[in-house]
Amino acid sequence: MDTAESDSSVPATSYATSTASRPSSASSIHPSEMAKELPSGAPKCSLFEVRDTATAGRAVFASQDILEGTLVWHSEDLALSVLLREYRREVCGQCFRYNYGRDMDVRDRSAGFAFCSTGCQDNWRKETGEVGVQAWTAVERLVKGRSKEDSQMVDADLPRPKTQDISLAWENVAAQAALIRITREGEQAGRAGDEDVIQATKQHKKALQKALQQHISPDIMSFCVSSIIWRHHHSEDWANVLALAVDKTPYHSADDLRAFTRTYLHLLAILPLPLLPLVTAETIFLLSSRDSHNSFGIRSLEDEGSEFFGYGCWPAASYFNHSCGPNIEKTRKGRVWQFRAVKNIEKGEELCITYLSGEERRLSRGQRMLRLKKNWGFDCRCERCEAL
Ligand SMILES: C[S@@+](CC[C@H](N)C(=O)[O-])C[C@H]1O[C@@H](n2cnc3c(N)ncnc32)[C@H](O)[C@@H]1O
User: Fold this and answer.
1) pLDDT tens across 296-332, in order?
2) Does the domain spanning 1-77+316-388 belong to CATH 3.30.70.1120?
3) In this predicted structure, which of 26-35, 182-191, 195-204, 258-267 has the lowest mean pLDDT?
4) I need a labelling partner for 260 at 20 to 30 A (CA). Which of 21, 148, 155, 204 fits?
5) Interatomic CA distance for residues 61 and 48, integer angstroms
6) What b/e string do you get for 115-150 counting C-beta neighbours within 10 Å, with b at 16 or more?
7) Top mutation candidate among 13, 21, 73, 375 for ligand 1, by most atoms within 8 Å of CB
8) Residue 9: what pLDDT?
9) What percent of the chain has pLDDT over 90?
10) How many whole angstroms separate alpha carbon 274 and alpha carbon 257?
11) Whole-angstrom Cα distance, residue 278 to residue 253?
């Protein structure tokens, strides 16, 4: 996902070191590395292995010679996805097919998604589950009529909040969050006739009403809702997200951070009760910190991907590092990413994709470096950049 420059007091990305080390071509290995377990959710295949590098975290290396054209990996493990609101009517909510500016045939107005076919709609409902559909319906109800509120993109050149700014912002909403949670739990207890639960007072209800009157950020809400629903259905895979490279300062600006803390309160106020235990400041922060350096853009498949519909995180796909002269091409087929060798690769070589979109690939080295630093937070150490 796009990010701006990071807090200079902390490294842009931090990693849990992971696997056995070995000499490599693109990123050299620290000699003291010991064999370690593969991170949860990392890709496993006889063609390659994931291991640590000295300068670029974990990476994928060929464990045998690979011929040009070989399909080396495909990732179906979509953990969260955001379809930007402005594209919701013309991009299928399930397979991300684009209808070139025209509305999709199948609309689910109450949940706020459109689909290219009833088959895609059925699959979406099945994967989203009843509680998920209720969650999207609650969001749609809140957002309808207010959807222009955050349509402007954030200026990525604003200063990024530092770690202490982030902690303070979340602490500042903790008291209101607690009041809202009590109000919501009171609803549930009232229905069940449970007298042990704290009764919601006027003060509690006022905190909830106040949250609902705040400015809303529909795309940030989609990010949080999509990942909370996914975590609800796939609790066993949460470790796969936690194992990804971490950005400790994932917010683009103070406004962006505020939008997240406000969204937290909105979601506490409106999401179905079974999801509330997952609506925590910690979960939302952890998601942002993993999304930032790992999500891929969901773009149009034509025009070199010039239309940016949104983004998503496929944890296993996030172990491939970037190169400005990649030997692997990643292609999106619906909700799945395919990784194919675009040249013959020798055993021991690093398998790299490009994180740059079509036109960005033709930029000069300096411009590419700047783009990668701004959007992904790293100084590119690929062979092509290091050779100059
Ligand atoms: C999607 S992750 C790739 C896997 C990551 N290395 C890991 O250990 O999880 C992206 C992060 O990997 C690192 N990275 C990827 N390509 C790089 C490159 N060419 N030069 C330096 N760092 C790179 C950066 O820290 C970046 O934010």
Assistant:
1) 999 999 877 889 999 999 999 999 999 999 999 999 9
2) no
3) 26-35
4) 204
5) 5
6) bbeeebbebbbeebeeebbbbbbbbbebbeeebeeb
7) 13
8) 45
9) 74
10) 26
11) 25
Residue 385 beta carbon below 6 angstroms from any ligand 1 atom = no
Q: Whose CA is nearest to atom 15 of ligand 1?
A: 321
CA–CA dist 372, 355 (Å, integer): 8
Beta strands in the chain (DSSP E): 48-52, 58-62, 71-75, 80-83, 106-108, 113-115, 296-299, 308-313, 321-322, 328-333, 336-341, 350-353
The answer to whether the beta carbons of residues 292 and 247 sit under 8 Å apart is yes
Domain locations in the chain? 1-77+316-388, 80-291
Pocket test for ligand 1, best of 1, 19, 322 (most atoms within 8 A of CB): 322
What's the CA gap between 316 and 75, in Å, rounded?
Answer: 6
CA of 283 to the centre of ligand 1 (A): 23
Q: Is 6 in the pocket of ligand 1 (CB under 6 A)?
A: no
The residue among 37, 2, 29, 64 whose CA lies nearest residue 351 is 64
Cα 15 to averaged position of ligand 1 atoms, centre (Å)? 10
The one-letter amino acid at 88: R
Q: Is 39 in the pocket of ligand 1 (CB under 6 A)?
A: no
CB 321 less than 6 A from any atom of ligand 1: yes
From ligand 1's centre to the CA of 299, what distance in Å? Answer: 21
Q: What tokens appear for 35 in the block?
A: 């064999």
Of 327, 369, 376, the residue with max ligand 1 atoms within 8 A of its CB, to mutate for a pocket test, comes to: 376
223-243 pLDDT, tens digit each: 999 999 999 999 999 999 999
